Amino acid sequence: MSSLIKSIHRKLFTLISIAGFAAVMSSSVSAIGQSPEEIAARIAPVGKVCIAGQECEVSSAAAVAANDGPRSGEAVYNQFCTACHSIGVAGAPKFGNAGDWAPRVAKGFDNLMSNAINGINAMPPRGTCATCSDDEIKGAIEYMTENSK
């Protein structure tokens, strides 16, 4: 009985191996009918590395921010801050909640700016807006504090 089971296992393993090889070959064959341009587009790198001091392309998010001019505090809040500040994720002061904001405002605007730019607790530097200028961060803070009195 044991030799019968071993024989069945070997045959099953062989069949599975052949099926796997056939599947790999069929996917490789489908690439044969593609033009060199189609293949190049399919295997092109997703991104590029930019080294300081070299001529580099501007990332699309940064290009959009640069071309559209500075974003309003409300626009920055709605795009980058609302995910955490609307519901108080990880202790973030909630938008519109004077009790959450009062102790932070009491420490001064410079402290709020420093925390926003450098990060604090679970908040990363610049929140989630790596492309925001200091003025845009300032506008977002002003928008949140003005609407949380």
TrEMBL record:
Name used for this protein in its record: Cytochrome c5
Pfam families, per database record: Cytochrome_CBB3
Top-rank taxon, per record: Bacteria
InterPro entries, sorted: Cyt_c-like_dom, Cyt_c-like_dom_sf, Cyt_CIE
Residues annotated as domain Cytochrome c: 68-148
Source taxonomy: Bacteria, Pseudomonadati, Pseudomonadota, Gammaproteobacteria, Oceanospirillales
UniProt key word Cytoplasm: no
MF GO annotations: electron transfer activity; heme binding; iron ion binding
PANTHER family (UniProt xref): CYTOCHROME C5, PTHR40942
UniProt keyword terms in alphabetical order: Electron transport, Heme, Iron, Metal-binding, Signal, Transport
Signal peptide: 1-31
